[in-house]
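in:
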């Protein structure tokens, strides 16, 4: 019962009075440079072009119809996703909607966007199976240096939920907490928990709009998933996942 009560406290909006009174110690107020909005990549890393939003021919459906159809989809046909469909999903979740890195297609408290998007790709036309990371500022993919070598690895990290193996792509979002902590101090973590839901809902809607389906995953092995992604589990760690596949 103690754990339940403490977790309920986390969900409450308890610290804004201290924020308004300037009682919280914030690195932004100290003049410390803000963290980069995107993890860097090495000069020799392989970058893969995605389809530009200006060239999308998918997703032209009525929003009302997409919302009405939205479900968690666990049964996939085995048909591949196109690169354009994947590009549309990535742009819909973390892509830029303006000319600044904090103007994106999903909302985030203070425009902090404290997330990275990793993908285990199994069945996308033109892409080799493997682990990738989305670069929203460039709208490209970069081949990731994590150690996820097969969809079986991702399935095991998701407690062997059967539908994972049949998906075309597994999205895994990591949190980079300091991007939000820099501004919001101890308020940041509630904001991060809220913001990641916005990402996944956009993925649900984008998937339905192209005849695919999504199922969000909250049950995963934290240590296994962080190890597969090659993140340290402290300054960056997995926070949410979702499968995507063409529907039967």
């Amino acid at each position: 019962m103690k754990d339940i009560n403490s977790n309920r406290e986390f969900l409450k909006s308890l610290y804004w009075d201290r924020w308004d009174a300037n009682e919280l110690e914030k690195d932004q107020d100290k003049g410390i440079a803000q963290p980069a909005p995107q993890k860097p990549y090495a000069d020799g890393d392989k970058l893969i072009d995605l389809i530009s939003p200006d060239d999308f021919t998918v997703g032209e459906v009525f929003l009302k119809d997409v919302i009405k159809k939205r479900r968690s989809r666990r049964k996939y046909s085995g048909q591949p996703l196109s690169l354009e469909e994947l590009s549309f999903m990535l742009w819909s979740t973390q892509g830029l909607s303006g000319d600044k890195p904090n103007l994106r297609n999903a909302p985030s408290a203070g425009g902090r966007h404290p997330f990275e998007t990793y993908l285990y790709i199994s069945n996308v036309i033109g892409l080799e199976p493997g682990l990738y990371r989305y670069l929203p500022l460039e709208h490209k993919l970069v081949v990731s240096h994590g150690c996820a070598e097969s969809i079986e690895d991702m399935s095991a990290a998701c407690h062997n939920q059967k539908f994972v193996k049949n998906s075309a792509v597994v999205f895994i979002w990591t949190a980079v907490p300091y991007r939000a902590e820099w501004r919001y101090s101890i308020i940041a973590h509630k904001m991060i928990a809220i913001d990641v839901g916005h990402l996944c809902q956009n993925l649900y809607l984008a998937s339905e709009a192209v005849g695919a389906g999504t199922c969000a995953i909250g049950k995963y092995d934290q240590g296994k998933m962080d190890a597969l992604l090659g993140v340290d589990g402290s300054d960056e760690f997995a926070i949410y996942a979702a499968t995507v596949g063409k529907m039967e």
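note: The two ends are 43 Å apart (CA to CA).
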